[in-house]
From TrEMBL:
This is Lipoprotein. It comes from the Bacteria. It comes from Pseudoalteromonas peptidolytica F12-50-A1.
Length: 175
């Protein structure tokens, strides 16, 4: 009985030691790139929200929101790769990205939040992706005009709170 137990133990040990570790599976490059951009976007959006809440100066918030707009453009490209039905809609937005922050807030609202200056789209998923650019561009516009009081900071805060909600939808769509 002792020899049988020793034989089984040795066999188990040899079998366990002979198993080769499986190589770690890496995400496909496009998936990894999207994951990295998503992570960066969320981190930057949360940092911008924190800085708005402590009422940082106009120029700092303008620069930070401009960085978020630039990062959103990368995400929009990644989004179109997965959802080509959004291409016309999101390409039109991308072409306007540099102009949007220079527009009056009412024009940003009607033209880009409410889609008045964008082509029609059929898939609701496109709408969430659009807002990753439009909301920080609105904050950039507020900052360019100068924060004149608590109501401007509150408006900017609400823009970023809303973009984080849209971000969650985009994150699910890209994963």
């Amino acid at each position: 009985m002792y020899k049988l137990m020793m034989a089984v133990s040795v066999l188990a040990l040899v079998t366990a030691c002979s198993e080769q570790p499986q190589p770690e599976q890496k995400a496909a490059p496009a998936v990894q790139e999207a994951t990295d951009s998503l992570s960066m976007y969320k981190t930057q959006a949360e940092a911008l929200l924190a800085n708005i809440r402590v009422e940082k100066e106009d120029k700092a918030l303008e620069a930070q929101s401009a960085e978020l707009v630039n990062l959103s453009r990368t995400l929009l490209n990644e989004f179109v790769a997965k959802y080509p039905q959004c291409q016309t809609y999101l390409d039109a937005l991308d072409k306007a990205a540099d102009i949007i922050p220079t527009l009056p807030l009412e024009e940003i609202e009607s033209g880009y939040h409410a889609d008045g200056k964008l082509p029609k789209f059929d898939d609701p998923v496109c709408y969430h992706a659009k807002d990753l650019l439009v909301h920080p561009a609105t904050v950039q516009a507020i900052a360019m005009n100068g924060f004149k009081g608590p109501e401007d900071y509150k408006s900017a805060e609400m823009e970023i709170v809303e973009v984080i909600a849209h971000f969650d939808q985009v994150e699910r769509a890209l994963k």
